[in-house]
Amino acid sequence: MTLPVLIITYNRFELVLTILEALNKNHYKKVYIAIDHYPRDAAGFNKIEAYLEANQFDFQLKKSVENIGCERNVITGIKWFFEHEERGIILEDDCIPTVGFFSFLEHSKNVEGVLDKNISFFSNCIQHNKRFYLYQSYIPFFWGWYTNRNYFKQFYEFVVTSRLELRDVLKLLTVKDVSFRIKLIVLINYVSFSYERHGTSWDSLLHYYQFITKKPFFVPSQSMIDNRGFGNLNVAYTHTNKLPDWYNDLI
Q1: CA torsion, points 143, 147, 153, 154, in degrees to nearest 10?
Q2: What is the pairing mode between strands 87-92 and 145-148?
């Protein structure tokens, strides 16, 4: 079973090539790439285009001339992706799929049960269990994930009509059947990444959307993505030079 793949990138073209090499090895040939601020390193991206052509990928590129930022690049990139595809995999540029990632996808009986249920994540997890299974959680890990057009359409309509304020997020504390720890993570995420910047990040909106619609995510019990930003190797970071202090305190 092969699915189309969207890669969202800004400043990690060398890792985009690593992702493409993994996709090529596992015969995932249909690729979309959304590039923020393409002119900043157009020459560097030529290597990516050459690799796509040399290995006969079926690919499309969305090149933003200006720097539109992480939130807009992610949201508009996914919207563009689903103008062409019914469902697919979304990888940010520092999300390197592992052997387990492709192994899971190839076992279609494992995938089909969750493909049409809201949103399911093939991603890292906080705790690595010996036994593999999918569990439901309100904490998503945007480090390689699957979704479909119908889900994203509903979420996108929510995005364009909603801008969260702190009082909205505080309402999470009243939601039943959700642990205080999860509520705390969502609240801290919003305050740290959104409120201080006088806006709402796309992932804060997605957190909130999942809470109010009461649709938990599907998360694997074992990591299937080597996240080069905040993941296993910790060799570099995507947008910062260190993890935020609140994250270390929470852990």
Answers
A1: -90
A2: antiparallel
Which stretches in the chain have pLDDT values below 50?
A: 195-200, 231-241, 247, 250-251
Give the pTM.
0.79
Inter-residue contact 217 to 117 (CB < 8 Å): no
Q: Which residues contact 9 (CB under 8 A, 6 or more apart)?
A: 15, 16, 33, 34, 35, 36, 92, 93
**CA distances in angstroms from 223 to 93, 133, 209, 228, listed in the order given:** 17, 11, 24, 13
DSSP state of 216: P
C-alpha dihedral over 105, 107, 109, 110, to 10 degrees? -60
Strands of the sheet containing 217-220, edge to edge, are: 58-63, 30-35, 5-9, 87-92, 145-148, 119-120, 217-220, 134-137
Task: Give me the sign of the Cα torsion angle 16, 19, 23, 25.
Answer: positive
* The residue count for the chain: 251
Mark 1-30 as b/e (b = at least 16 C-beta within 10 Å). Answer: eeebbbbbbbebbebbbbbbebbbebebbb
- Cα–chain-centroid distance for residue 95? 9
Side-chain half-sphere of 36: how many Cα atoms within 13 Å? 20
Residues 6+ apart with CB under 8 A from 10: 35, 36, 37, 70, 73, 93, 238
For 124-168, write each residue's pLDDT tens digit.
555 567 887 777 776 655 567 888 888 888 888 877 766 666 676
Paired sense of beta strands 5-9 and 30-35, if any: parallel
| Cβ neighbours for 91, distance < 8 A, ≥ 6 positions apart | 5, 6, 7, 8, 19, 97, 144, 225
